[in-house]
Design goal:
147 residues; alpha+beta; six-stranded antiparallel β-sheet; two-stranded antiparallel sheet; 8 strands; 38% strand
Length: 147
């Protein structure tokens, strides 16, 4: 697949989620998921999360579901810090893809599901003696817990 064609078949989203909080949540999913897998809708994120030391990004394998009669598309989700308060998500196909409406709907739906289940804000600093809440995710559902 040529670079320009792969770019047009990729999905990108920048979310107002601190990168450290996003990464911590994704790593916690690894510990709570069944066989290092997390289902988002009909699609599947498959662990482990890998770190690319050269680019500073993290990636996880994805099986993008396009519908009941089609095989899932092998993709990779790359996660990188965008700026202090945001994270960049890019969903990139790892095989030939037929650019159909179902493909684009599934890609956008997966990124929507992912960014809506991650914590929006995580405190940067904690004052001494002050209790705070942090967001954690357990098998795809958002829950608040105390440390």
């Amino acid at each position: 697949m040529t670079g320009q064609l792969a770019d047009s078949l990729s999905f990108r989203r920048v979310a107002s989620i601190p990168f450290d909080a996003c990464l911590a949540t994704l790593k916690s999913w690894q510990l709570t998921g069944h066989d290092d897998e997390l289902r988002l809708g009909n699609s599947l994120l498959r662990g482990p999360i890998e770190h690319d030391h050269y680019f500073g990004t993290w990636r996880i394998e994805v099986r993008l579901a396009r519908g009941p009669l089609r095989r899932p598309v092998r993709m990779r989700l790359e996660i990188a810090p965008w700026y202090a308060g945001a994270t960049d998500f890019e969903l990139i196909p790892c095989q030939r893809v037929r650019p159909s409406a179902a493909y684009f709907a599934a890609g956008h739906s997966l990124l929507d599901s992912l960014t809506h289940t991650l914590p929006v804000r995580v405190p940067v600093q904690q004052r001494l003696g002050q209790d705070y809440r942090r967001a954690t995710v357990s098998a795809g559902s958002l829950a608040l817990s105390r440390p």
